[in-house]
Design brief:
GO molecular function, one term: protocatechuate 3,4-dioxygenase activity
Enzyme class: oxidoreductase
CATH architecture: Sandwich
EC number: 1.13.11.3
CATH class: Mainly Beta
Shape: globular
Distance between the termini: 39 Å
Helix content: under 10%
Protein name: Protocatechuate 3,4-dioxygenase subunit alpha
Strand content: 15-25%
Structural class: mainly beta
Order of helices and strands: HEEEEEEHHEEE
Number of domains: 1
Largest sheet: 5 strands, mixed
Domain Intradiol ring-cleavage dioxygenases: 48-116
C-alpha cells in the first residue's frame, strides 16, 4: 500500500448539513396517490364510518395541498399486521390509509371505530400530517369522544392543559361519522406530539 502524504493523512471529510426530513412534493407526487388510498374499508361494510374534516393554516385558511396518513387498531383493539395497504383488495383491513386534501383543505377517510388496545384505554387513531412549509411531518392523534372515563385517564391527554385536550377529540355526528379539523397554528392549534431521537 502506498504511503500517504501528510495532506492525505490529515484530510477529513466535511460534515454535511442535514437535508429536509420530508416534503409533500411536487417532487414525488407520482408515488403518493393510489386507488382507494383513503378507503380503509368499503363504504358498504357494516360499521364503516367517515373520518373527515379540514386542515387549516395559522391564519385560519384551508390548506389545499396537505397529505394525511392514519394508523389505527381494528374494532377489537388489535394492532393489525396484514400486508396490502397500498393495494386495496376490498376485504383486508390493514389499519393504514393515506389521503390528500382537496382544494378546500378537506379530507375523508372511510374506516372503522378503533377499539381500545388494552382494557380501560381510550381508542384513538394516529395521524401524520405532511404539508407545504413543513420540513418534517407532524404526529398527532384523534380520539373517539364517547368513553369520557378512558379519556380522563389517557396519559397523553392527561399531560396536556385542560383547554388543549379538545383539539385531539373528534365530534361524533348524528350519522355516526367523526368530524375532526386540524389547525397547524394559531387559535385552537391541534396538539402535535414530539418523539425523542433514537
Amino acid at each position: 500500500m502506498p504511503e500517504q502524504t501528510g495532506t492525505e493523512a490529515t484530510r477529513t471529510i466535511p460534515k454535511l448539513p442535514a437535508t429536509p426530513g420530508q416534503t409533500i412534493g411536487p417532487f414525488f407526487e407520482y408515488a403518493l396517490p393510489y386507488a382507494k388510498d383513503g378507503e380503509l374499508v368499503p363504504q358498504a361494510r357494516p360499521g364503516a364510518l367517515r373520518l373527515h374534516g379540514t386542515v387549516y393554516d395559522g391564519q385560519g385558511d384551508p390548506i389545499p395541498d396537505a397529505l394525511l396518513e392514519i394508523w389505527q387498531a381494528d374494532e377489537d383493539g388489535t394492532i393489525v399486521q396484514e400486508p396490502g395497504s397500498l393495494v386495496r383488495d376490498g376485504y383486508t383491513f390493514t389499519g393504514w390509509g393515506r389521503e390528500s386534501v382537496d382544494n378546500t383543505g378537506s379530507y375523508t377517510f372511510t374506516t372503522l371505530n378503533p377499539g381500545a388496545t388494552k382494557p380501560g384505554s381510550a381508542p384513538f387513531i394516529a395521524v401524520v400530517v405532511f404539508a407545504r412549509g413543513l420540513l418534517n411531518k407532524l404526529h398527532t392523534r384523534v380520539y373517539l369522544p364517547e368513553d369520557t372515563a378512558a379519556l380522563a385517564q389517557d396519559p397523553v391527554l392527561s399531560a396536556l392543559p385542560e383547554d388543549r385536550r379538545d383539539t385531539l377529540i373528534a365530534t361524533r355526528e348524528s350519522s355516526g361519522d367523526l368530524l375532526w379539523d386540524i389547525r397547524l397554528q394559531g387559535p385552537g392549534e391541534t396538539v402535535f406530539l414530539s418523539f425523542a431521537e433514537a
